[in-house]
Amino acid sequence: MISFDALHYPYPSRRNAVYAGRGMVATSQPLAAEAGLEALRRGGNAIDAAVAAAACLTVVEPTSNGIGGDAFALVWTGGKLHGLNASGPAPKLLTIDAVRAAGHETMPAHGWLPVTVPGAPAAWAELSRRFGRLPLAESLAPAIRYAEEGFPVSPTVGYYWTLAAKRYRDILKGPEFETWFDVFAPGGRAPSVGELWRSPDHAATLKLIAASGTASFYRGELAERIDSFSREHGGFIRGDDLAAYAPEWVEPIGVRYKGYDVWEIPPNGQGLIALMALNMLSGDTFASREDAASYHLQIEAMKLAFADGKRYITQREKMTVDPALLLSARYAAERRTLIGHEARQPEAGRPDAGGTVYLAAADGDGNMVSFIQSNYMGFGSGLVVPGTGIALQNRGHNFSLDESDANGLEPGKKTYHTIIPGFLTKDGAPVGPFGVMGGFMQPQGHLQVVMNMIDFGLNPQAALDAPRWQWTEGMTVELEHGVEESIALALSRRGHNVRRALGSGSFGRGQIIVRDPGGVLIGGVDPRADSAAAVL
Q: How many CB atoms neighbour CB 276 within 10 A?
């Protein structure tokens, strides 16, 4: 498996890597990790633990995800890796003409126009049904308990909650947004760090989902409430959109990288971008992580991969290029020739035809889960369905209003999606789940943590602790605090427009679990969040 020195910590960290023998749940919020551990203790497996943690995160970290968001999962069980795409499509009434008629030249970020069908509740139910051991109601019990009884707001969550409340006061105008403030900013403010926050509406909704196996959400009482709220305020989503929805089991896509197989969910997710970048770099040897040449090669490969992603990624059935061509060795070699000593403006190639939460879970029986869910851009659309606590996502913000664009808006179409779970295998055996949440930072985070472990020998915790870079646009690269000044200067000399980030908020937050050859689980959690790993 991955060879790293368990005592090698070259970067400042709040903690060492975590070791366990019978189970581990790593999340961005400690109570959610404990919720997953509770599922394991009740006789559940890693899939039950992932569902429990995911549902709990909608309550204890509402700044990044919610019941009205989407989800994706990679599940290793029964000697095979399975992929679940639980992203939802645009409502059937939503068209480019309708958006333009509302006075917009691009898709807005808030309100009804960017709202797409939520997939997260369906993901929980489908994972539980197909691979879980516990009843869904039992997995959702911790989330319901925290929503009913309350929980003390953790530091990172509290920080982003306060920022969101201030921003929403300035931009969310209209009666349709009143419920968001009633639920998430009662009394006119966000809850403070350490303050007990409870949401009986969340609890009631989770109880309905637990009792009905999500039937209430897509065809029953909750669906009716979403439909009614949408009609009342000129929205486009209807009960028929919800009733027609089902998550999709998909075959993961992967590339061979230096003896390991790196796996992602296929489009409409952007995991393809991480794989394309790794494919370009698979023949390179990196002498040191803390070397400007290493940074430069990674950044340039990622820029080229993003250019292709923007050109081609959309709902799989509507892509004009087969992802297999984008991942071919021939195309990777062709794109690699474009990386020189100097930074370049990225352009898409032409292959021949011929706010998010991430969690990882593992159990003592070999099951492992890489799971991610999100409302997008923090709380999502700013719309909360009255009486339910359901914050609707704004995933449609990523659609283009250009009919010729691969990601052009169409009724019933799924948009180019940012959230991506990752997974590593070697010689057909599982190594483990990994992920880095955070919008378009995610494939960049995937590339960096994979290379940190495989190329640079860092253990999971050190791989997450290491300072990150982020390409934003054009020639601009942001460097996190901790990147040496000599590297920043060297990148600048190569033509990169280097910017120093003021904080770590935009660099993603991840979790990693790997299983060593003896079956021991080794976990790392991101110091950029309130992260924790709960173990058996």
A: 27
Q: Where are the strands (E) in 265-418, listed by range?
A: 356-363, 368-374, 384-385, 390-391
500 vs 21: CA distance, rounded Å: 40
* Least confidently predicted of 93-97, 175-179, 308-312, 503-507: 503-507
In 320-478, where does DSSP find H-type helix?
Answer: 323-326, 329-336, 442-454, 460-465
**How far apart (Å, rounded) are the C-alpha atoms in residues 190 and 184?**
6
Tokens of 371: 């799971």
Distances (CA, A) of 118 to 14, 65, 530: 35, 11, 26
The kind and range of the H/E element at 161 are: helix 155-171
The contacts found for 226-231 with CB under 8 angstroms, 24 or more apart, are 226/385, 226/388, 226/390, 226/392, 229/176, 229/383, 229/385, 229/386, 230/112, 230/115
Tell me how far apart the alpha carbons of residues 184 and 162 are, in angstroms, rounded to a whole number: 10
Residue 188 token pair: 């006119």
Alpha-carbon distance of 113 to 398, in angstroms, equals: 11
How much is the pTM?
Answer: 0.95
**Per-position DSSP letters for 195-235, written without gaps between them:** -EE--HHHHHHHHHHHHHTTHHHHHSHHHHHHHHHHHHTT-
Please identify every residue annotated as catalytic: 356
Torsion of CA 173, 176, 177, 182, to 10 degrees: 130
DSSP secondary structure string for all residues of 272-335:
HHHHHHHHHHTT---S-SS-HHHHHHHHHHHHHHHHHHHHH-SSGGG-SS-HHHHT-HHHHHHH
Q: What is the pLDDT of residues 144-199, one digit of tens each?
A: 999 999 999 999 999 999 999 999 999 999 999 999 999 999 999 999 999 999 99
How long, in residues, is the chain? 536
pLDDT band per the 50, 70, 90 thresholds, residue 350: low
DSSP 416: P
What is the pairing mode between strands 390-391 and 422-426? unpaired
